[in-house]
Predict the 3D structure of the following.
Amino acid sequence: MKYLYILQQALIWILLIFWIYQLIISFCALIKIKEKPLLTNKKHKFMAIIPAHNEENVIGNLVKSLRELDYPKELYDIYVIADNCTDKTAEIAKKEGAIVYERFDEKRKTKGYALNWFLDKKIKENADYDAFCVFDADNIVDKNFLTVMNKKLCQGETIVQGYKDIKNPTDSWISSGYALFYWTQHKFYQLARYNAGLSPLMNGTGFMVKFDLIKETGWNTKTLTEDIEFSLINISSGNKLGWAVDAIVYDEQPTTFGQSWTQRIRWTVGHMQCFRLYTKDLAKGVLKNKTLTSFDGLLYIMCIPLFIISLLLIIVNFVLYLLSQMTLGLMILNVLGYLALAYILLIITALVTLVVEKRSIKKMIKGLITYPIFMASWSLVNFVSLFKRNVKWDKIEHGQKA
């Protein structure tokens, strides 16, 4: 019995220290830092890359928004990777002015494989580009995007994540949940870490990579979450990622629970794949680099084990109740306390984000009310994903929002 109490307290302290650390770093989002100086002053040449699978509904809008960027037209090219397409994606992209590469591979259909295939060709061609940016087919890109990314390159940054805003934050309680999650993450994870001198993470779309960085190894991601994987590979080797709040892409989010469930299962399984593949490298990075950046990256990949610790803590409380070492009321109070730590903090942070970012609380009030359900469903996603090994990539259908 004594050991159960010791285990209970140990688990509580692990979770408490983790959340205190996250809270301390989050406060760095409110600090204004001095802008980095320019190390060079030139206009770089970019590839805008769009992996797309059957995206005829939205691909034209994205290509058009890229053609209208406020950046010299001769200094960027728009490439669409029509990946195993059976619709008019390639035809529409060509009509709108993109350079289209068609790829057919029934066994390797994910975005990571498409990027690897395309970038390998460009590396072998010794293509004359300084950097590339990657977008999802349903995006719309702010006209200043490349101007901002060019400035980041001039400041010496080699990987930079742009700001992924949401096209449809009020379409449903699901899209509202995504919007609150991303806005909060952008402010109190990405910006906070950038201000603190740590490393943000790639976020799936709207990111820039210096071309030289991948010329030796290629893209070469293996998991279902190629963005996180590429981030962790670089963090483990001591390379910090950048953050550009004013390089904006507008992204469409799922509106139904079924779509969201499928997507988040894929993300979580991909996260677990990254945990298995890169925890050792990140731990080595901590020992080799001896920086908080490496430690922070290791903490990120430990989110799944921390979820398991939370489950274990609930189980320990239940066992203590069954052994008559704890009343039912105390057990319920303890469990609610753990949930408050994990979820109520997130909800308060979401509300603070709306205020600080000057977004309409009135428009998001329904989303705020249902946000606890959205975040609780993510815990269910995490639990189910613990028992999944192979998840196939399923396309999320996109509308025509511009």
